[in-house]
């Protein structure tokens, strides 16, 4: 059956047509029973599910926030970067969609195979470079005449900026982004075969008064080893770690051997600072507890027991009489 949802007016019109004989219900059933062929374009093979594309979008939304923070600090101007879209297309179609002369940064992402291409619109790249050189961030597109100094400034800036990929991808893979190539002509860059499926994440970028796009092209070969981690089940599941045999017993023994301070408090008293300064040898301080009241025994400054003083083998000792309830918030 068709997945199209009909409005109430369309349903009423359909029922009316069947009742008046304008439309035959048997013919409708026959059409529904016939097999319908859906055209499939092998050049646009869909190798990622919608769920996986959504996961990649979430990852690069975090990357966009990291880039916004990085460029705001580096350029000292208004910067806003956000994810505009995430699509899977053939590599050839991506190359045709970007300008003939643009800023292309090729990154290796070990331990994953393949390379990631990050294309920065020349207007954005020149605005960044102008700010780095102390200018107002004006844009001047002369990408086909880049000097060696301009190339070095741009490549260093983008190499540092896109190190944030490591943090953004940390939820699915531990990568180490390395800038391996810097190019301006897409025709000279052949990372994968023309029909290879790539995921393109487009970032809306605003630097001061200049706007443009940053496109991240990730070939399927790069994502293939971590595709299972892009599913909702991976994000939602809590991995249960197997306990090492005897771990609980060793932990219990170590806790039992731990030393804790025990304080037997005879009592306390409040005096003024003046009286404290006048204290001398032989003076007596009156405590707030009488001799027949039990002592408070503290474990690590927390009252835990009551006791009475005494001696064992000519040494002072305290005998525990009772347990103090409510001595700590976690007491039951």
TrEMBL record:
Name of this protein: Flagellar motor switch protein FliM
GO-annotated biological processes: bacterial-type flagellum-dependent swarming motility; positive chemotaxis
Localization terms from the record: Cell membrane; Bacterial flagellum basal body
NCBIfam families reported for this sequence: fliM_switch
Keywords on record: Bacterial flagellum, Cell membrane, Cell projection, Chemotaxis, Cilium, Flagellar rotation, Flagellum, Membrane
Top-level taxon of the source organism: Bacteria
Membrane topology according to the record: Peripheral membrane protein
Protein encoded by which gene: fliM
Entry's Gene Ontology cellular component terms: bacterial-type flagellum basal body; plasma membrane
Positions of the Flagellar motor switch protein FliN-like C-terminal domain: 254-324
Cell membrane among keywords: yes
Family membership noted in the UniProt record: Belongs to the FliM family.
